[in-house]
Structures are given as C-alpha cells and as structure tokens.
Amino acid sequence: MARSIFITGGASGIGLAAARRFWREGWTVGIGDIDEPGMARVADELSAYTVRLDVRDRAQWAAALSGFIAHAGKLDVLLNNAGIARYGMFEDVTPDESDLQIDINVKGVINGAYAALPHLKATRGSRLINVASVAGIVGSPGLAVYSATKHAVRGLSEALDAEFTRHGVDVACVMPFFVETPILDAGSKGSNRTIRDAIGKSPVYTVQDAADVIWRAAHGRDREYIVGKAGRQASFARRFMPNRLRKRMKAAFAG
Ligand code: NAI
C-alpha cells in the first residue's frame, strides 16, 4: 500500500507544490481546501483525492479524514498547511481580521491534530507536520497577529512532539521565509500595503524549495525545519544577537 499524505490548503502555493512532490514520489495524496475550483484543477492534474474542508469546522475535519482513509487505506502524514495573513500595522488590521487569522492558523491546526491523531496512531511511523513560519521565530512587525499565530503553531508542535511519542507519532514544524505564493498579496482593511511591499531586499524562495523541505520533514529526524538561508540567518540573529535585531526592527518602523 502506498504511503499517504493529507494536505490542508493544497489547492495553492506551498500546499500545492507539496502535493505535486509527494504525488511524483508515488504517495497517495489527499487535499482539503475551501477553494473548490482550485481543487478541481489539482484533482485533474494529480488524480489526488480532494474534499471541501474549512479547517475551522470540526465536523468537516472528521468527514474529510475518514473519506481520505477509505480511499488511501491509512494516514501516514497530515500536513497542516492552510493559513492566511493580514498585513498592516496592528491598529489597521481589524479585530475581525485578527480573529480570522487565529481561527484558521491556530484553531485550524489544533482541529487537524485532534481529528488526525486516532488515524496517525493506527499507522506505524506516522507524522504530523505543521506549517508555521519564520514569523513564528521572530515577532514580525506588520504581521503582529499573524506572527502570534505562527508562534502558537511552533509551540504546539514542540509540545505535541513530546506527547505523541507514546503514540509512535512524530511531530515536525516547517518554518518558511518568504515564498512566492498568493499570500504575499495579502493586505488588510486598514492598509493598502501588502506583504510584498514589506519584502524589500529580502530573498523570496520558490514553492519547490518549500516542498523539498516538507519532503525532508516527512523523512528526517529533526523537529524544526526552516525554508531558506535568510530564515536560518533570522533565527540565528534572534537567538544570538537579539538586541541588534531589536534595534534594526525598531529603526525600520520608527517613521
Ligand atoms: P496560499 O494563499 O497560496 O495557500 C493557502 C491555501 O489555504 C489556499 O489554497 C486557501 O484556499 C487555503 N485556505 C485558506 N483558508 C482555509 C480554510 N479555512 N480551510 C481550508 N483551506 C483554507 O498561501 P501559501 O503561501 O501557500 O501558505 C501556506 C502556508 O505557508 C500558510 O500556513 C502560510 O502561513 C505559510 N507560510 C507562507 C509563507 C510565504 O511567504 N508564502 C511564509 C511562511 C509561512
């Protein structure tokens, strides 16, 4: 029986690139997304199992995973990838926009962990992979609440990795730096700027780079995987030069 992966947010961006990568490697691929036209295109291209899933809805989670397991026979990896961003200064992002990020990026990931655990427990060598962000390592101005959601995903992953050992389930957390996907065009109601405007001279990595790292996270022994050298540098600066990093960030946002 082929190994199987279920990917949330697999109709676009990083999730789609991961779907293509695992499918090419012979895995059975399932995709849950709210973008039904996007999923129809992927289903044609990859003969992937697709199901409408809003990660905020626990009943939909249960149905999506049992449908996928009926199709694939088992669940080896859940890739909790679906996520959204709202860019802008804290007061320009509305409370509703902040709630939405928390509901999708944090509660959606927690819902996925609850729904998948019984299925992962039943599969030897299974894994939960959560997509956080380098914004889950460094608090990111312009993305304050988004950054908070990604810190939450990183902390959750660290705790669950220890807890789920007794179930034989490993947990990994993938933290991309900027990756070229539609999320870079995210703004917010109170700001006409987008993440793309904030990139400046920073590098932007490809979805293939991210998919390669997710592939490694599905096979390697580490708990945290960063996508992009700039992300590893940011993580290093946060850890070993926090005051210098703080000064740089304050200077960039002083005006
Ligand atoms: P994307 O916008 O291309 O893809 C996100 C997918 O999630 C879309 O297909 C969308 O329909 C789906 N989605 C949104 N809300 C959903 C919901 N409630 N239920 C189910 N599916 C939903 O964005 P991208 O960049 O591929 O993002 C994937 C993950 O990578 C996200 O968690 C994001 O925060 C993270 N990330 C992205 C970075 C980047 O620069 N692109 C950097 C760091 C992390």
Shape: globular
CATH class, named: Alpha Beta
Strand order of the largest sheet: 3-2-1-4-5-6-7
Report the total helices: 9
User: What is the CA-based Rg, rounded?
Assistant: 18 Å
Order of helices and strands: EHEHEHEHEHEHHEHH
Cofactors and ligands: 1,4-dihydronicotinamide adenine dinucleotide
User: What would CATH call the homologous superfamily?
Assistant: NAD(P)-binding Rossmann-like Domain
> Which spans of ≥5 residues are poorly predicted at pLDDT below 50?
none
E-strand count? 7
* Number of structurally distinct domains: 1
Characterize the main sheet. 7 strands, parallel
| N- and C-termini, Cα separation | 58 Å
Share of helix among residues? 40-55%
In short, what is this structure?
This protein has nine helices and seven strands; from the N terminus they run βαβαβαβαβαβααβαα. The protein is 49% helix and 14% strand.
Please describe what this structure looks like.
It is a single chain. The chain is an alpha/beta fold and 255 residues long. The protein has a single domain (4-227), classed as Rossmann fold. The chain is 49% helix and 14% strand. The protein is built from 9 helices and 7 strands; from the N terminus they run E-H-E-H-E-H-E-H-E-H-E-H-H-E-H-H. It has helices at 13-24, 36-46, 58-72, 95-121, 144-163, 195-198, 207-219, 229-240, 242-253; strands at residues 4-8, 28-33, 49-52, 77-80, 127-131, 170-176, 224-227. Strands 3-2-1-4-5-6-7 form a 7-stranded parallel beta sheet, sandwiched between helices. Strand 5 (127-131), helix 5 and strand 6 (170-176) form a beta-alpha-beta unit. The chain is globular and about 55 Å long. The mean pLDDT is 97. The structure holds 1,4-dihydronicotinamide adenine dinucleotide. 1,4-dihydronicotinamide adenine dinucleotide is lined by residues 8-9, 11-15, 33-35, 38, 53-56, 81-84, 104, 108, 131, 133, 176, 178-179, 181-184.
